[in-house]
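Running low. Any example?
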Amino acid sequence: MTIIIFLIILGIIVFIHELGHFIFAKKAGIYVYEFSIGFGPKLFSFKRKNDETKYMIKLIPLGGYVAMAGEEDGFEDEKIKVPEDRKLYNKTWWQRFLVMIAGAMNNFILGILLLFIMGLIYGTQSASNELSSIPKDGSLYEAGARDGEIITSINGQKVKNYDDISTYLALVETGEKINLTIKNDSNKEKTYVVKPKKEEDGKYYYGISVKVENEKGFIPALKYAKDKFISIYKSMIIVIKSLFTGVLGLDSLSGPVGIYSVVGAVKDSFQMILYLTAYLSINIGFMNLIPFPAFDGGRVLFLIIEKIKGSRISPKVENTINGIGFIFLMILMVVVTVKDIFKLF
């Protein structure tokens, strides 16, 4: 069951992503050779009447592609004479730009839609940065904080809700003290140095408890989807920044094996499966927009440079840079996957 759910989640996310590229390519009149979900050996394929595109499902579901005529590193079939005006590189700048970002945009739309559906079905639960029911045996209470006060920053980083608190706590080394700035009823701020207590299960506990509100309805569900999307996106920016600054290491990254483990942990809860799918979809959309070679964001960066300089970058240069980026990503994927496997034992 875990494998089935894992494949369904990945399949939906990949399909939605590639569908974005596909729709905008077709709208721009670009000749599309193949639309594939997965890589490797072909499991299934078909063609529609009066449609040049071959639709395929392949064995390895860790991605997909839309093969368009005119891509420097794309699929080319010498038997098919594609008119020049149907090749990607001959389309307008805006058409090429929209084709490149459409996959990520679709992922964001899917994520927001799933969060909205969650809110409609199960109601919404929003946790603020206002302290409430602080455990009296916790470090925060002992430091002097009280219910009704508001956490404004952790280690100098501003927080607006509990998602921010969770993100910044995740960046703290195990057992490390934190500087917690709290505003009282008089709008006066005070910074507490809070050292966590170690629980019997080995986990560290700061004793932070915040106000939680539960709501149901269409409008609360919309607000929840919007707020949670912003929160997830913001947390990803923080994580990427922390990776570059060295605050986080490669151990904090997860690949397919790590995702599979999470699916196994939540497979009995439809609500958690919805949330995981939404989270991963937003994550993949975000990652694809990073301006790194081989990502959609890398191609967008080349388009922006082209716009600034007023002429196209040499296809050979662009292809070489994308190739190097792809090799680097494959090495990183292998390293992360090996680390995920070792975590299982």
Q: What stands out?
A: The two ends are 21 Å apart (CA to CA). The chain has two domains: 2-120+276-343, 125-215. The chain has a mean pLDDT of 88.
